[in-house]
Amino acid sequence: METIQLSYLLYNLDEVKYCFMLSLLFQNNHTLSECLFWAYELHKSKQSEFLWNFIAKIYYDFYYIKGASFERQIDIEYNAWKKGSDFQHIAKIVKELHKQNADITIFHYLHANINTNINTNINTNINTNTNTNNDDEIKMEIKSNDDITSDILKNNIEHSISYLHTQSAEDVKYIYTSLYKVNRNNDMCLFYENQKHRWIVKLISKLEKRKKVWIKTKLTNADIKQIAEFEAPIDHVYKTLKIRRLYEINPLVGGFKLARFKGETDVVKVWDKTHYTFSDVDRYISAYLHNWEFYARTTPFWKKIFDTYQIKFVKKKPTFPNVDLLESFYDAYGFEPDEQSGETQYKSIRSIEKRSICNCFKKYNVEFNSKLLQITY
Predict the structure, then answer these.
(1) What's the rounded Cα separation, in Å, for the pair 284 and 12?
(2) How high is the pLDDT of residue 116?
(3) Helices (H), 100-168
(4) Which long-range CB contacts under 8 A does 338-347 form with residues at least 24 apart?
(5) Strands 312-314 and 317-319, how do they pair?
(6) What does the DSSP 8-state code read for residue 180?
(7) 59, 77, 143, 247: which one has the fewest Cβ atoms less than 10 Å from its Cβ?
């Protein structure tokens, strides 16, 4: 994300995304309630198509290798959601993924590959007999995708992935279908925008065999009640953030490249004991405390509302065609973030340290066998 963009409840939107991801992957550290909260915040911000794509990406990277058949269920719930945008369809998928133990194999292959310089050509040696010496090795150079075999791909998966990234989605699909039997699940999740990623994961999962383990679950009455509470109206609009902000941003999202890490600032007018003065403030703080309307303006939920009230911006401040529209807007959406308690404010503007993905996952007792730096996911 290039700059700060605020969500429905005025969290930094990229940080909501990564809080959702971590709460989904590490169920021993994060409850389902927290996971559903972050998912609903993305949904309410009208990022639902993005959310479905993000869920699919996480599924392919961390769950597909052990639960390929669940791809069909994601596809079913997505198509049901398209008919009415009911969050429960998203919640069903989130709950079932939250129940599983994530497998980092695919994620590690893909991101270790991104963080290292690997020759993009498959030009490898296949040893046809482990008892022979190097003179007996057969050098196999790939001149076309028709030459590819599963042995070539399996011999060096990192190099194979690098090569596959140079191919189109259709080319990767062709390699897969030429090597393996195609079943009905191969036409699932076509809504997922990164089909090349999908087919690469399918190929790697064929090369890296895992025991298929999947725990079935479904939404309970308690889950449905929680979702209803997310959607329930608030009596006084200025209490919205106090009541609705149930969780603070997870500091471990510092393992990802965040908009706040760009080091941008805003000059704002602040009260200094006896008078106002101008001060240079970190943008992620000024966005929440001083200019929330401006930094929320491109988020679909807020954009629709701002358009309805004919709001324009001059030097990051909202302007209205008349006083009636101004008063009507703040009567309905005056969240007053700068007037909230320190506890409520801290939930989004707490300090976050930069860290590597290795360090982030290590905090959850998950270690990689190679160095993974801070990433955009």
Answers:
(1) 8
(2) 41
(3) 105-114, 150-155, 157-165
(4) 338/288, 338/289, 338/290, 339/238, 340/241, 340/242, 341/242, 344/241, 344/242, 344/245, 345/288, 345/289, 346/248, 347/11, 347/245, 347/247, 347/248, 347/249
(5) antiparallel
(6) S
(7) 143
How far are the Cα atoms of 2, 25, 44, 89, 207 from residue 48, in angstroms, in the given order? 20, 19, 8, 11, 33
- In this prediction, residue 185 has a pLDDT band, given cuts at 50, 70 and 90, of low
Per-residue pLDDT reduced to its tens digit, 191-217 = 999 999 999 999 999 998 888 889 999
Q: How far apart are CA 285 and CA 76, in angstroms?
A: 41
What is the model's pTM?
Answer: 0.89
* Angstrom distance (rounded) from CA 59 to CA 72: 12
| DSSP β-bridge partners for residue 124 | 140
Report the C-alpha gap between 26 and 18 in whole angstroms.
Answer: 12
Coil/strand/helix, residue 233 = coil
Where residue 271 falls among pLDDT bands split at 50, 70, 90?
A: low
- Other beta carbons within 10 Å of 201: 24
How does pLDDT run across 288-303, given as a tens digit for each residue? 999 999 999 999 999 9
Higher pLDDT among residues 256 and 186, named by residue: 256
Report the first-to-last Cα separation within the chain, whole angstroms: 10
pLDDT of residue 117: 40
Helix, strand, coil fractions of the chain, as percent rounded to 5: 55, 10, 35
Residue 195, classified by CB atoms within 10 Å of its CB into exposed (0-12), middle (13-18) or buried (19+), is middle
- For the record, the structure tokens of 115 come out as 């963080």
Pair of tokens at residue 40: 């609903």
Percent of the chain clearing pLDDT 90 (strictly above)? 72
Write down the pLDDT at residue 209.
81
Delimit the domains of the chain by residue range.
106-207, 259-349
